[in-house]
Amino acid sequence: MDIKVLGIDLGKTVCSLAGLDEAGAVVFRKRLQRHRLLDFLDTLPPCVVAMEACGGAHHIGRFCLQKGHDPRLMSPLYVRPYVKVHKNDDRDAEAIAEAATRPTMSFVAIKSEEQLDLQALHRARERLVSDRTRLINQGRGFLMERGIRVGTGRHVFQKELARLAAEGTADLSPRMLLLVTDMASELGVINDRVAAIDAEIKALARTDADMQRLMEIPGIGPTIATALVAAVGTGSSFGKGRDLAAWLGLVPRQITTGGKAKLIGISKHGNRYLRKLFIHGARTVLHLVRDRTSPITAWADGLKERAHVNVAAVAMANKMARIAWAVLTKGERYRPNAMSGL
């Protein structure tokens, strides 16, 4: 049995394996308990080990590198076309192995433990921010039912909630007043936890050279810089800046038929969290940067005159992503005057 490519369909408890020989024929099938997979890979002669980029795949990929294997991680979206007829775990493993042999396949770079730690920090922060948003929306609904309208904005709501908890009002029953007090306390705890994570992110960004160079780009701060490095590392898996922008879903979606190309809204593929951060960063360049004489802000101002503000924000985010790719891959600092010809 000469396995050249091993496809692994990772499951929570059971993994399905399919091995291909040099001609691409299936010569091996097996099902293993998840906890026995590393022992099997340890005894397997060096080969290509293909997996979908899902939970635990990066850990297994790092183990494969240590044992001399060639791990290849792929997006499940790219594996789906290779599944034959009815879907099951064994055919999924075979499809993964076959997809890994395609010369045009795009592979996911294996993340280091430091990248995964940083990514986990961002995911914990995003969960807390989502919890805070849900809490505020629920509190607004409760107060609206009692005829109390609070102005827009998180900070406005927090101040009003703290005032109601401290002073009370005749519009709220004792039960509702107790609930509002509890909400104010919970909101304060969430704010403290988010602030602690933000402080940690800023401290990490100050100690990393790549992140420091990224933060020189207008619109990119510690949050975007750390999230980008956690997701793409040095950016070497992307051939050009447009590839990174496309991976972030910041390029138009195409509907081409009969030789006629039609571009519609952005694809919104890839990392939703990073795309959101880049668009927020782009809005700061469009509206909040005071120096409007630099080439990039002049370009943004011209774009705002020609297009809707949301279209301009996405275009600015696209350009920021391309500049970030160049800064990461070339190891150079941001050069503002490089855009003077635009």
TrEMBL record:
Family matches, as Pfam families: DEDD_Tnp_IS110, Transposase_20
GO biological process: DNA transposition
A single MF term (Gene Ontology): DNA binding
Record's signal peptide: none
Positions of the Transposase IS110-like N-terminal domain: 6-143
Domain Transposase IS116/IS110/IS902 C-terminal: 212-286
Top-rank lineage group of the source organism: Bacteria
Protein name from the UniProt record: IS110 family transposase
Originating species: Pelagovum pacificum
